[in-house]
Write a structure and sequence with these properties.
- The protein is mainly beta.
- The chain contains two helices and twelve strands, in the order βββββββββαββαβ.
- Strands 1, 2, 3, 4, 5, 6, 7, 10, 11 and 12 form a ten-stranded mixed beta sheet that branches. A two-stranded antiparallel sheet has the order 8-9.
- Strand 5 and strand 6 form a beta hairpin.
- The chain is globular.
Length: 208
């Protein structure tokens, strides 16, 4: 059935290298070494993703991040997206926050009332479900992840750091049912994680 095929085609694919982009509104540069997709083999691959701030001075918050690779295998599409394995290798994410600097907000003034409101935009989960009816991933693997949170508005910066974090989940599902009935919008049969050398101060440095 032609209507059951992704983008009304039996098979298609592409490869792109050395992609770069500047997101001035988000204060970030994005660079990707390689992206490839092959629907015949059911594979999607991304290599060397780097996100860096355009400016750091005077910013309420900014992110520095890199991912070694994202590898999706066993991908198919009938009534929804089905993936046998999703592996994200060596993500390194650093989030810097400076509450002493006022965070900019987009707002609009209503002419009749003169009140301000923030436009939050559509829910990302609803957007995903509108693109595909359902998502199923048999195995999700997050390998060797590093996370850093650093608050900069204090003489002694608040730091939360997690190194060598590994996570797995099996039978991940996201669809209209899980969106409506699950607290976290998704469901999975099993999950687990490990981390090493956790060494942080928590709860405003009351505990170590």
């Amino acid at each position: 059935d032609q209507n059951a095929n992704m983008l009304y085609s039996e098979n298609w694919g592409f490869t792109a290298v050395d992609l770069t982009g500047e997101m001035k509104s988000r204060n970030h540069n994005l660079a990707i070494e390689k992206i490839s997709l092959d629907t015949k083999d059911g594979q999607f691959f991304v290599k060397n993703v780097n996100l860096s701030p355009i400016e750091t001075e005077g910013q309420y918050d900014y992110v520095q991040a890199s991912i070694d690779s994202v590898n999706v295998t066993g991908m198919s599409n009938d009534t929804g997206l089905v993936v046998q394995r999703l592996m994200v290798k060596s993500p390194d994410i650093k989030y810097f926050r400076n509450p002493g600097i006022r965070k900019p907000q987009k707002h609009h003034e209503e002419e009749d009332i003169g009140e301000e409101y923030v436009d939050e935009g559509p829910n990302s989960v609803d957007v995903l479900i509108s693109i595909m009816n359902s998502y199923y991933v048999k195995d999700i693997i997050l390998d060797s992840a590093n996370f850093l949170y650093k608050r900069l508005d204090r003489k002694d910066p608040e730091i939360l750091q997690i190194d060598n974090f590994r996570f797995y989940a099996s039978d991940f599902q996201l669809n209209k049912y899980t969106r409506k009935n699950m607290d976290w919008y998704f469901d999975c049969s099993d999950f687990g994680f490990t981390l090493r050398n956790f060494n942080n101060y928590v709860l405003n440095k009351q505990y170590h």
